[in-house]
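Now produce a polypeptide, keeping tokens residue-aligned:
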Amino acid sequence: MSWLNLGLPVGGPALGIILILIGIVIFIFPRIINYLIGIALIVSGIMWCMGGGWIWGIISIIFGIIVMIFPRILNYVVGIYLIISGLLLILASGWALWPLIIGALTLLFGIIVMVNPGVLNALVAVYFIIQGIFLLAQYYHWF
């Protein structure tokens, strides 16, 4: 599925570290989650586009902008984003184990946020930390 090329984001380890730090900051300062999520989505979208993953990058940028403009619907926007991301990761995984697991977790997190929006802060923080670790592991060929 070449049209679904997610590519690797430019600066894989930098994005991984940024996402881990944002996840930690969300745990510490949950009131600024809207801006952190919006910024994280826009930054990762730009990096995905620079790395050749246009579909993933454009989706991330659009959802990041929506989150920044309409913070009251944050839970649903993030839930939909996670569901779409999870499906794209599963489709693009080629049944490789780690991308398939990350895609399934992303899809599951999206469904949980849509069903129970109150868990958004903790779930998004954990998701960013997991995604950051995954990007670092992928860049440094830990698996």
